Amino acid sequence: MQDEDRKDNEAMQNLPRGIALSWGLEKEPQRGPKRELSIRKIVDTAIQIADKDGLSAVSMNRVAASLGYTAMSLYRYIPSKEDLLLLMQDAVCDIPIPPEEKDEDWKNGMREYVQACIQILREHPWFFDIPITGEPYTPNILQIVEWGLRIMRHCPLSDHEKMSIVLLLNSYARSWGGIIRDIDKAVQAGSRSAAPSTSDIHNALKYLVTQEQFPQLYAMVKSGTYAGENESDDGSNDFEFGLERILDGIEYYLNQRQAENGK
């Protein structure tokens, strides 16, 4: 036991600084600028800048100036910009997690889970601009992973299979979040009003896409299916269709596993 405790203590001491800060394992400086400054205030200010002007606008100098301090004052609390970005990601993932329900339907749970993940990405589109470098290690992001695993808790799957399913749904949320982000940016930039009319382009395609050259696409263009003329502007029908097919696939796999376990 003593060897295990020693190894645990060494592991805790060797944690990267940003991860240690996210878990509250390091005390904030006791001495510093006269006005109160904190890790939370620094992170919240950086998030406000990123939400307004994008991730490229976030720098220690910009955050410090917004708070009325020098960049050196911030480094006493957060040692690098990389650590700041890590803390920003974790902070925006501090979302309400639904309470556990005894007889929760896993499909409904996963629908809510994916929608919540997309909402984070939509509210903070700069999240996409931070590269994925490995598994998450910070508490709020892990709490979201915990939520996904909780939904699958009664499924007859191995730990690896459950994690893979959560990763699959996270990837789907990230993909759709990116599409929605690009649409939102286009609308905000006014590119739709400046560009040629979308309806004009769709009408032109009905002439340009011939049955001889595009035998499979032709009927879809003619009916308006290709342009999504019968769908909502945010593509929710496409999103829901894709999500339901993923859930159907997971359900089929679960049924197979249950049949195998019943033998």
Automatic annotation (TrEMBL):
Coiled coil: none annotated. Residues 59-78 bind DNA. It holds the Pfam family TetR_C_1. The keyword DNA-binding applies. Keywords: DNA-binding, Transcription, Transcription regulation. Transmembrane segments: none annotated. Residues 36-96 form the HTH tetR-type domain. This is TetR/AcrR family transcriptional regulator. It comes from Paenibacillus residui.
